[in-house]
């Protein structure tokens, strides 16, 4: 695979670029994650979106635990080359809290209010085996 396109991306000092994940069907912003070179290449190779976990310091595929996969539709680079827009076909939900989007809270009267209902129960999906 020719990787000349990677040279246009301005990775930060940790080798990461922020990726805004958007549902291709309705345009809703689902989440923001970070990708390194390996996550980008793995995403293109598999068609499933991969990220670099800053807390775990490991590569991960979105939905590998929950089954709520993100299938790559299109990837765009912003004008400065330092942010990605990744359009996906989302299975079920993107947020680990049970909401479709990680942006489920809206500021109302100077308080964060839940603006969208849960679409799954995290306790069921992420139940740890005994």
How would you describe this structure to a colleague?
The protein is globular. The longest helix is centred in the first third of the chain and has 10 residues, at 37-46. The mean pLDDT is 95. The protein is mainly β and 130 residues long. It has two helices and eight strands.
What would you say about this model in short?
The chain has one domain: Ubiquitin-like (UB roll) (Roll), CATH 3.10.20.810. The chain is 11% helix and 35% strand. It contains two helices and eight strands.
Looking at this protein, list some descriptive labels.
single chain, 130 residues, mainly beta, two-stranded antiparallel sheet, 8 strands
What is the second-level CATH architecture? Roll
Mean pLDDT over all positions: 95
The CATH class designation is Alpha Beta
E-strand count: 8
**CATH fold annotation:** Ubiquitin-like (UB roll)
Calculate the terminal CA-CA distance, rounded to whole Å. Answer: 43 Å
Largest beta sheet: what is the strand line-up? Answer: 2-1-6-5
Domain count: the total is 1
Range of helix content: 10-25%
Low-confidence stretches: none
What is the SS-derived class?
Answer: mainly beta
> Which overall shape is indicated by the principal axes computed on the Cα atoms?
globular
CATH superfamily: Phosphoribosyl-AMP cyclohydrolase
What's the Cα radius of gyration?
16 Å
Topology as a string of helices (H) and strands (E): EEHEEEEEEH
């Amino acid at each position: 695979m020719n990787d000349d396109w990677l040279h246009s991306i301005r990775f930060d000092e940790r080798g990461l670029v922020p990726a805004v994940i958007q549902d291709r069907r309705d345009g809703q912003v689902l989440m923001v994650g970070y990708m390194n070179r390996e996550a980008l290449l793995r995403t293109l190779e598999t068609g499933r979106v991969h990220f670099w976990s800053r807390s775990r310091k490991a590569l991960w595929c979105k939905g590998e635990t929950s089954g709520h996969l993100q299938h790559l539709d299109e990837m765009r680079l912003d004008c400065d080359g330092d942010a990605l827009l990744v359009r996906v076909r989302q299975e079920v939900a993107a947020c680990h809290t049970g909401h479709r989007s990680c942006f489920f809270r809206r500021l109302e009267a100077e308080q964060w209010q839940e603006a969208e209902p849960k679409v799954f129960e995290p306790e069921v999906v992420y139940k740890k085996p005994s």
